[in-house]
Write a structure and sequence with these properties.
This protein has ten helices and no strands. The protein is mainly alpha-helical.
Length: 169
């Protein structure tokens, strides 16, 4: 794998298909691309990688993308996450919310809070986990409002616990 072919592969897979339609060869190539850009950081690869997540777990490969991103410019990763968290593709939003927990930033608070409006419980859980990492920038009233209106008691309690950890206003 080289940079040109890695970028080309990612450009053609925005996003990858859901796991139910993902071929073994495609996920193997995605993993080769991930490994290449882990060892050879390339700014162009960041947004492309974040927008390549399909629905599912990529047969365990999606979890490894974080390693590649940790070797990239932090500000670039955060600005790319900020955009990708607003993707129309569920898999992109879901995995970028997961990754956001490792890159806490004030820039990610608003897009993560918007994910709490989704109907999917798993999306809300990963958003809350990432939101907790952004605590010092978090407006407590937004989390309180979510907690008061959330029908799922576990999610409401999770938001309450995060709110209790926030510095007093």
């Amino acid at each position: 794998m080289d940079t040109t072919n890695g970028i080309r592969f990612l450009e053609m897979h925005q996003p990858l298909p859901p796991d139910t339609q993902l071929s073994e060869q495609t996920i193997k190539t995605f993993d080769e691309v991930r490994r290449h850009f882990t060892m050879n950081p390339e700014p162009k690869s960041v947004a492309l990688m974040l927008n390549a997540f399909g629905e599912g777990d990529g047969f365990g490969v999606y979890q490894l993308v974080e390693d590649m991103l940790l070797r990239q410019d932090r500000d670039l990763v955060i600005s790319s996450l900020e955009a990708a968290l607003q993707s129309q593709h569920y898999g992109v939003r879901y995995w970028c919310a997961n990754i956001s927990a490792v890159f806490p930033s004030e820039k990610l608070v608003a897009p993560l809070l918007r994910l709490l409006n989704e109907t999917d419980r798993d999306m809300k859980i990963v958003a809350l986990i990432a939101i907790e990492q952004c605590g010092r920038w978090l407006p407590a009233d937004a989390l309180r409002s979510f907690s008061e209106n959330e029908q799922d008691d576990e999610l409401s309690e999770m938001a309450d616990q995060i709110t209790r950890k926030l510095p007093r206003e």
